[in-house]
Amino acid sequence: MEFFNPKNQAYKSLNRALCEGESVMLRLCMPRNYRCESARLVIGADGEEPQRISMRWDGMNGDYHEWWRADFTAQTAGLYWYCFEYSVPYSGGVITKGESGAPEINDNGAKWQITVYEKDFRTPDWLEGGIIYQIFPDRFAIGSAGVKNPYPERIVREDYENDPYWVPVGGIYNCDYFGGNLQGIQEKLPYLKELGVSCIYLNPIFEAHANHRYNTADFEKIDGMLGSEQDFKALCTAAKKVGIRILLDGVFSHVGQDSKYFNLYRRYEGEGAYNSQNSPYYSWFKFNHWPDDYESWWGIKLLPEIKEETPAYLEYICGENGIARRWLRAGASGWRLDVADELPDVFLDSLRTAVKAEKPDALILGEVWEDATNKIAYSERRRYLQGKQLDCVMNYPFADAIIRFVRHGGSEDFFRVVEEICANYPPQALHNLMNHIGTHDTPRAITALAGRTVPAKGGSGKACIL
Asked: What is the pTM of this model?
């Protein structure tokens, strides 16, 4: 018989995240022959000194075991960790979480987690049980009006079967396009509705000078190849009529060096941060030595990194007339946040305030690859799903578990991952997770499932898919 099992209601009354002020019962099952004299629940908020709550004897469990019980109520949102102590004549021990997840007597073992979220944490109910369809706009559909290309340097291709190619223009750019546009998406709405789609997640659609458009050039303008702001509004209106919402990709941690904000190539009128230290955008960027030595996203000089906590940038994105609210007014139903774990708390807090003020049922979906309830990023424990930041996240742990299970078997690992997600995530976030088996950032599902696995170079212990 186990000392403790959080998945069994006899031991833990609620195996899920808790709301502020909600109580949970926890019980230990101690062997009678231990002659346990007392027991304590050791629990505390993340980073704080834990409290010790005396457990009371709670009756026999069969002939040879006995229950010890404590009740815990978390008054404030946060991440809580707990284990148990017990005393026997002349000795005692600590019951912690073993590597397999089973309890063990180990003073230095891991602790169990309880997520506590704020009372007023609400998420949109329109996505619950829905289907998200991800669209990479350039490669989806060309509208009946044909391809529009107001950018002379862009190469439009019709040879769909051939390999992509790269053209160096002050760096390596993705310069070949196939001309997919917003009108093409709108004309495909009947097909998407027939598939049962309830939400379209669009990869970036703002002006940017690479086909992936993750190097934003102007947040205020739809990329000219995709259409106009009026085309976007028309798409949102038509989608709403058939019960489909539009989710935008918010790439807020960096921009393109070829943007009106940085303006390295002077494509844009006005002074970008690269052109002048008096630029209205200069404070947004991290210059080690202006203008050529600047911080960039993962060291990619094409993508100057933004200081998201800068007041001017916060106002530009999250202000009353900022980017977040502007495109919601135009018809979007929410934002997917690119690299959400690289956005500081002050930015995420401000963004949620702006989004919910503009459209209370708008969705904020974060790109987080790990368990979003206990993620540590930049040496800080993050609070994405406690009530003031994200509504939900992309469920990469689930995707990884699916791929491992199909390729290698091992239902225990798959079951463990799913159980941990269900136990750790607030229910309102859990019901809106973007469950997938592949995105634009991962190998295609067919490759991951059927490709050849080879050891990684350098002895890292990881493997890659070919």
From this structure: 0.93
